[in-house]
């Protein structure tokens, strides 16, 4: 069983995530590459929210291929190009998380491989037997 670690004496997390997450021995591990907000038809939404939805949907498909779901996510790392995009990204991300909450990092970066990309997301998941 995964266990959320949020010790006394450490500031409460800023959002829906855990400071630490214990994964017991024997768990299967899946690490995704960063997923960009581009659809299989090469469509790129103009909004962070639209791109984040594509990122998380792609990750959901990757997880499913490994017989996992977002319930197995232990770490989510998001990258956006503007601080102002945090709320839109978080709104989408929060639809995909469940307890125990995964650890999470959100970074502002100067850009991605193409100027129209606004967000990238990667996930680490562990399937506990």
Automatic annotation (TrEMBL):
<protein>
    <submittedName>
        <fullName>Enamine deaminase RidA (YjgF/YER057c/UK114 family)</fullName>
    </submittedName>
</protein>
<dbReference type="Pfam" id="PF01042">
    <property type="entry name" value="Ribonuc_L-PSP"/>
</dbReference>
<dbReference type="InterPro" id="IPR035959">
    <property type="entry name" value="RutC-like_sf"/>
</dbReference>
<dbReference type="InterPro" id="IPR006175">
    <property type="entry name" value="YjgF/YER057c/UK114"/>
</dbReference>
């Amino acid at each position: 069983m995964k266990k959320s670690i949020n010790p006394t004496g450490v500031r409460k997390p800023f959002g829906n995530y855990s400071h630490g997450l214990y994964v017991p021995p024997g768990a299967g591990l899946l690490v995704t590459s960063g997923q960009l907000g581009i659809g299989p038809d090469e469509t790129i939404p103009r909004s962070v929210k639209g791109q984040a939805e594509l990122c998380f949907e792609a990750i959901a498909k990757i997880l499913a291929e490994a017989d996992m779901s977002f319930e197995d996510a232990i770490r989510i790392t998001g990258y956006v190009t503007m601080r102002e995009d945090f709320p839109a990204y978080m709104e989408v991300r929060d639809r995909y998380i469940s307890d125990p909450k995964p650890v999470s990092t959100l970074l502002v970066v100067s850009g991605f491989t193409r100027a129209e990309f606004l967000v990238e997301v990667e996930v680490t998941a562990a399937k506990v037997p």
